[in-house]
Amino acid sequence: MSSFGHVEALARRRALLCSRAVPRLDRLLARTLGLSRKQSTRLCRAGRVVAEDGAALRDPAHPLPPSRLPITVRVDARPVTLRARYHLLQHKPRGVVTALRDRRHRTAFDLLAQAREEVPLLRDLRAVGRLDLDTSGLLLWTTEGPLLHRITHPRYAVPRVYHVALARPWSPLPPDLTLEDGSRPRVQALAPLERAAAHPALHVPDEAAALATITLTSGMFHEVRRVFAALDSHVLGLCRVAYGSVTLPRELAPGEHRELDLHAEFANLHPASDESSSSSASKSSSSSSSSSSSSSSSSSSSSSSSSSSSSSSSSSSSSSSSSSATPPPAQDVTPA
Description:
single chain, alpha+beta, nine-stranded mixed β-sheet, three-stranded antiparallel β-sheet, 10 helices
């Protein structure tokens, strides 16, 4: 192919991509009303789709630029809001799984489907990450695949905050914690949690002996549970209360949802640098240490004071190596 022909082919391809980027009336109708493209085309050609000014929209390919959306039209005199995208946050209760369908359990999607009249583009919604059967809390949904991929990708290190009910206090978190499968969780913060500050969505069994809040920037399978198991504790109740800047409203009932704009929430999201990740981990480790020491028993504090006096009497070189070997307290982990 000549260079001129190659340029022409590129121009045609660019024009095709641009035309696909601008939503068409028939496609938006099909997505919003759950129709096939053929059915939405027939609605338009029959004059049954009318603009707000009363003009019939007979051209199925009528372009509706994203800047004009959402827009309300009338289909058989019924108002219908057309959108190119939709995002929401949901309070996922315990006892349902994060899935579109499941043979054994109710799903978080089933709860949205019950309110289908309030949920635009229902068939296109996909969950941002997962919460398991026994985990409650914040679950985000979006119709945009690229956005979903971006805010869940480890490269962006979006912090996830969890409130946790534990069977017993946890051990200090070592700086190089490695789980049984060889993975290394990125814990940004770990601290004791007062009962009054715990989110109402957190299930706290009677046998719970400690509460914690943990922030993770990784999102591995059952990560929070596995981290606390590695710290000699056991998770009895788990609730995600924040994902990035999005927090779970305390007044939102289990199973309920609200619309939000994820583009606005993650407008300043950038890839995390290795330096900032390690820096945040060390901050979390030191904050975790102080929390752990403040919550220790009096016998443990007396032993730590004797060890600190012995370390002060040692040489400066052994003192520096001993401080680097001191394990920092536990940090935050993501459950999925």
